[in-house]
Design brief:
4 helices, 131 residues, alpha+beta
Length: 131
Amino acid sequence: MCRLDEIWDDAFGQHDAFHMVDGYKNTECLVYKGFKIESGYKDKIYVYKPKGEVYEEINQEEYDILCEYGWRKGVLKLVLKSYQIKLDTITEKVKIEVNTRRNDKHLKSLKSSRQQIMDSYLKIVTQISKL
């Protein structure tokens, strides 16, 4: 079982994470691919994932992924997981659209969204294979 301070050290060692310091709350955080790790608030470390325009703390399964793969590769795995959820949602919407309304404009929009996510998915898979 890994500790959160080990994940923090791993994240802090990455050169491509965005580093921020909040003097008001006396916290320090790093953001990589939308995921944020925060340290300093009551000497605890928290990891957050993007949820719309706000952040939500990750669940235990996602913490386990970070422990298993480390910060960088773990975040990339979590990004892939979120892309897979988006692709599944779009696939369901396409099925509903084809079987009900058959609106060509909406169908093209869904296919375009799916293609953009698949392109991003492929970029992340390529990054993981290079690690």
